[in-house]
């Protein structure tokens, strides 16, 4: 029996089906060895060697893996094809005592039968340089997290954390907010005029461009009034007309960040939801009789490269579906932007071109369908011919004031036949309005002047989408780190959402200010980007990882000493909000405080009075009547976030259930029924374990595509902020 070790439990059945009965497929569920949870785990005195230990929650998995390895005739490692996956593979090989010179490392860039069967035939040795790059990142993050976080806790508040990437992302949000706060708007005016060519449609608008051939800024109403007076009674004449054909090139296929941005903007999905859906599409979706099938290629990539095979197959698809003129005369070849792009993996694309979104729609959740459709259409659009437009621009003059109007009509759809580029509402080109046939010296009729007062605006707050874009452009993190980084900013309550925008909290601003005071040379964009470059050099044997860490620590240590030695009170805590609830023990008006599990009511006279209460918005939801005592059953969450149901009078009534109790009796034994849900069904069954009554109810069409955010079952491979 041959043994294949992978990461994700979700891929086991799919790969086993491809490999056949002679193979055992075993999933680690992510990292099985790591730095210790409660200590630094880095031997600073001995060249920063990491002190790995078995992860406590993976002891059973490790034991099972070792037992299976003893029985295996051959062992192969097919963890994810990135640095994090290489590290997991290295730890697996270490635990099993494998020979590192042996070719037992396999890479699957997509979970399809052809790829799996092909790649299993050409294993390589584990890549020590890739592993060292991951080690270096892990040690860096541990040093920053474990050395700086206690300073935050001492000087600001408990349960705070800093991270090499996390803190820089937070600084972007805080800096943007302060730019907005300090921004002084300036008044200006614009002038549009509504015109028509006599006896011709349509009516169109032109905008004031120049006066006597010079650009002019209308700063106030007086200036605008003078322009309007100058135009009064003037003749409107077409002075110039320019006709041309403009082109719009097809967009590149998706990288991780561009997929996340497009899905957030176009589909209205959250970042966590996009990440979870993409993971499911990559690991495989149950397609009925076919079983689990992966629908997209590897989803953590910053490359826009497309394989020759995929390009050839895309060409056939495009010509068959749209016609030969929809395929460019030369194939579209895209180059990744940035110096530190890792090109090991293709861009994100469909794994099976024949599986159209509509053909698999019955098997997908609404959210998965929408994301798959977006990936599918974006990829084929990237391989299609450019779109062309008939463009017209005209200059119209009245009393030495020049107005400009442009118009654009589609000539050839090209890639837009399948995919539309995303534009914000305020970015839509006004030029797409229809124009009458215009010629030089044509006389036009003024219908209306439309002066408008405006004020300059600051840059907008970041959204999840624009923060990802900023992180990518500035070299902050890697594709796998975007989601966990932005997520932890919310978890730590450093930022909060206002609509779709990210607003830093007072706590987030305080943390940023402290880090800027003591660690400005480390917690900044340029240092973080340079460090990513250095990690790439480690992966390509251009830099020793011990040297990288030593150079960093040499700069870091003096800053730590200054921060730890400074006894200055750094922050004034925000006064708590007074509620309208009286403390039933001492009569004081209770205040709203933030705790580990959210907001709660607390007596202001603490520690003399330690009374606390649940805030109404956080109070457990009443979902049923207790089948034992008749009181309310509350929906609660376990420490691991799993929902369960318990009687509100739990001190006296010990009713508790993982399934929702119903006010319905079993038709067989008269015990109460309970209910749980699967993806497609609502299942009612008897609470009496000896009774076999079960009722399966098919769910109706799901709601508008929204689904709960899911955490990846697999380790994301991103920065682990300590």
Structure, described:
The chain is an alpha+beta fold. It has 6 domains: 2-126, Rossmann fold, CATH 3.40.50.140; 156-183 and 463-565, Topoisomerase I, domain 2, CATH 1.10.460; 187-249 and 387-455, Topoisomerase I, domain 3; 256-382, Topoisomerase I, domain 4 (Orthogonal Bundle), CATH 1.10.290.10; 577-617, no CATH class; 620-698, no CATH class. It is built from 17 helices and 29 strands. A 6-stranded antiparallel beta barrel has the order 8-9-14-13-10-15. A 4-stranded antiparallel beta sheet has the order 18-19-20-21, with no helix packed on it. The relative contact order is 0.13.
SSE arrangement:
Elements: E1 2-6, H1 12-19, E2 23-27, E3 33-34, E4 42-43, E5 49-50, E6 53-54, H2 59-71, E7 74-77, H3 83-96, H4 113-119, H5 128-155, H6 166-182, E8 187-196, E9 204-211, H7 221-231, E10 236-248, H8 256-267, H9 271-283, E11 285-286, E12 292-293, H10 308-322, H11 357-360, H12 366-382, E13 387-398, E14 401-412, E15 443-455, H13 464-473, H14 482-491, E16 495-498, E17 501-504, H15 506-519, H16 525-539, H17 545-565, E18 577-582, E19 589-595, E20 598-602, E21 612-614, E22 621-625, E23 632-637, E24 643-647, E25 656-657, E26 660-665, E27 672-677, E28 681-686, E29 694-698
Parallel strand pairs: 1-2, 1-7
Antiparallel strand pairs: 3-6, 4-5, 8-9, 8-15, 9-14, 10-13, 10-15, 11-12, 13-14, 16-17, 18-19, 19-20, 20-21, 22-23, 23-24, 24-25, 26-27, 27-28, 28-29
Helix pairs in contact: 3-5, 5-16, 5-17, 6-15, 8-12, 8-13, 9-12
């Amino acid at each position: 029996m041959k043994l294949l070790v992978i990461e994700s439990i979700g891929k086991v059945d799919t790969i086993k089906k491809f490999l056949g009965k002679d193979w055992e497929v075993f999933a680690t569920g992510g990292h099985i060895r790591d730095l210790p949870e409660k200590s630094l785990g880095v031997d600073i005195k001995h060249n920063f060697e990491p002190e790995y230990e078995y992860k406590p929650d993976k002891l059973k998995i490790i034991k099972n893996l070792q037992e299976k390895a003893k029985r295996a005739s051959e062992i192969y490692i097919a963890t994810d094809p990135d640095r994090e996956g290489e590290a997991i593979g290295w730890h697996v090989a270490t635990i099993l005592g494998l020979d590192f010179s042996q070719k037992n490392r396999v890479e699957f860039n997509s979970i399809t039968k052809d790829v799996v069967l092909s790649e299993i035939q050409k294993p390589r040795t584990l890549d020590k340089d890739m592993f060292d790059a991951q080690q270096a990142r892990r040690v860096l993050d541990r040093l920053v997290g474990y050395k700086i976080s206690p300073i935050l806790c001492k000087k600001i508040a408990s349960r705070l954390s800093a991270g090499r990437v996390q803190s820089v992302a937070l600084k972007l949000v805080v800096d943007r907010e302060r730019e907005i706060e300090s921004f002084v708007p300036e008044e200006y005016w614009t002038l549009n005029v509504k015109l028509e060519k006599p006896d011709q449609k349509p009516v169109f608008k032109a905008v004031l461009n120049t006066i006597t051939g010079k650009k002019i800024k209308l700063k106030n109403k007086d200036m605008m009034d003078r322009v309007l007076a100058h135009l009064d009674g003037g003749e409107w004449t077409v002075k110039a007309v320019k006709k041309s054909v403009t082109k719009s090139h097809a967009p590149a296929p998706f990288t991780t960040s561009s997929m996340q941005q497009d899905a957030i903007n176009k589909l209205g999905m959250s970042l966590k939801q996009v990440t979870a859906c993409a993971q499911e599409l990559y690991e495989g979706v149950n397609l009925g009789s076919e079983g689990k099938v992966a629908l997209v290629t590897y989803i953590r990539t910053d490359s826009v490269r497309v394989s020759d095979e995929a390009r050839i197959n895309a060409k056939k698809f495009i010509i068959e579906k749209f016609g030969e003129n929809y395929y460019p005369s030369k194939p579209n070849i895209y180059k990744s932007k940035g110096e530190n792009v890792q090109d090991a993996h293709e861009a994100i694309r469909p794994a099976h071109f024949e599986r159209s979104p509509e053909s698999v729609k019955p098997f997908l959740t609404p959210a998965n369908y929408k994301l798959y459709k977006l990936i599918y259409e974006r990829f084929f659009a990237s391989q299609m011919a450019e779109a062309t437009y008939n463009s017209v621009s005209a200059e119209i003059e009245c009393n030495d004031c020049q107005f400009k109007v442009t118009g654009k009509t589609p000539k050839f759809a090209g890639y837009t036949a399948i995919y539309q580029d995303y534009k914000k509402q305020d970015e839509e080109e006004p030029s797409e309005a229809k124009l009458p046939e215009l010629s030089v010296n044509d006389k036009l009729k003024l219908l209306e002047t439309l002066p408008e007062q405006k004020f300059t605006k600051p840059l907008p707050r970041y959204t999840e989408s624009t923060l990802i874009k900023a992180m990518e452009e500035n070299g902050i993190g890697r594709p796998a780190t975007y989601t966990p980084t932005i997520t932890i900013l919310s978890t730590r309550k450093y930022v909060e959402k206002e609509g779709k925008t990210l607003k830093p909290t007072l706590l987030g601003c305080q943390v940023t200010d402290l880090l800027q005071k003591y660690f400005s040379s480390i917690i900044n964009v340029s240092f973080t980007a340079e460090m990513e470059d250095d990690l790439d050099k480690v992966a390509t044997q251009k830099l020793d990882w011990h040297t990288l860490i030593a150079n960093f620590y040499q700069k870091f240590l003096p800053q730590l000493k200054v921060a730890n030695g400074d006894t200055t009170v750094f922050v004034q805590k925000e006064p708590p909000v007074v509620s309208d609830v009286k403390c039933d023990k001492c009569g004081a008006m209770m205040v709203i405080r933030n705790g580990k599990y959210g907001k709660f009511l607390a007596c202001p006279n603490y520690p003399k009075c330690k009374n606390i209460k649940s805030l109404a918005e956080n109070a457990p939801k009443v979902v049923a009547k207790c089948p034992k005592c008749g009181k309310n059953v509350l929906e609660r969450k376990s420490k691991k976030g799993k929902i369960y149901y318990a009687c509100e009078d739990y001190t006296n009534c010990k009713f508790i259930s993982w399934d929702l109790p119903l006010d319905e009796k079993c038709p067989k034994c008269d015990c109460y029924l309970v209910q749980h849900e699967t993806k497609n069904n609502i299942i009612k069954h008897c609470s009496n374990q000896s009774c076999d009554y079960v009722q399966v109810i098919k769910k109706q069409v799901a709601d508008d595509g929204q689904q709960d955010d899911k955490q990846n079952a697999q380790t994301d491979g991103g920065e682990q902020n300590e």
